[in-house]
Specification:
It comes from Syncephalis pseudoplumigaleata. Helices cover about 70% and strands about 0% of the residues. The protein contains 17 helices and no strands. Helix 2 packs across helix 5 (about 95-100), helix 3 runs parallel beside helix 9 (about 165-170) and helix 10 packs parallel to helix 16 (about 315-335).
Amino acid sequence: MRSANAGDNAAYHRLLKAVTPVLRAGARRGLARAGQPVDQSEDIVQDILLAVHLKRHTWDANAPFAPWLFAIARNKLIDALRRRGRRVFVNIDDFSETLAGAPVEDSVAPSEVTTHLNGLPKRQRDVLQSIAVDSASIKETAAKLSMTEGAVRQTAERMTMDTNDLIRTLAADNDTHERSVGHLLLAALVLAVPVSTALFLAGLGVRSDVMTAMRNPMFDLKFAVTLALAAGAIVISLRLSRPEASLGRWAWLLAVPAGLLGIGMMGEMMMMPNRAPMATRMVGSNSKLCLVAIPLLSLPLLAAALVALRRGAPSRPAVTGAFAGLLSAGLAATLYAAHCTDDSPMFVATWYSMAAAIVAAIGALAGSRVLRF
């Protein structure tokens, strides 16, 4: 795969040929466990190969290839079973176990295919993108493209090719490479931040006593917390954009903003013991505005983040969308902090956190739909 990504089309062709029997055996095993006809495996194999081709830029050259491949295969098998009305657990060992056994003969007869992008008319290309890449059903595809279900089926039936022909087509298309998800996310946020900033300046603006407030460590702490949240969520989102990645220890990055808030609350109690009661500081004077402003300012940032992360291959789209929401909320809260006159860490811990949770929920809902591959 390393040679293939470096532009070696012959190596890419050999790789796809080598993994096809493994993918076929895994697909047949998964279909059998779900009580589905195993002769439908070839369509799934072709969907997996196309996904491998479209998402090959998400493979980390310093990481093993097999977990990345099997994560994509498992995802496409689950999507195929879901389209058939089946909700089952698919064990990744359905694919990995194949490596330990004897070589599988590549003798399954070619069947109807739903994957072929190059050289297709626009309507056929749109149908293929929706069904094979976006994992939409015939009904969903028809609604999205303003076609009848019969027309979608008829269009899909015209797009048949032998798996070997597909491999040759994909290998020949290896010259085109996607930019990394990290670069795309950075570019998307660079475009979205000015939009959210313009909304902030038009609707809220910077607080009038900002120069005085800057001498208050609690005011400065708000920015440290929100930026720490955004930075941690960006790192985690990029990790989850790879199909084989898991959250794991990276979740501890969220402990950084939480720790800063904890330190701030202890410092506030020790250094300013005569301030307003805890309940008063927690409620503040801008709680309702906080719950509205941060989610609204987050929307352009969230949309940009989801567009960029869609170029990845997240195996947990809802979780990835939630972290996209958190990074958007962190950046939006940084803007809002310049307006908010409630500087108490208790206020930030309560209301900023609630606003971030709202955006994370929106991101999870949107991600479950738009980040599937």
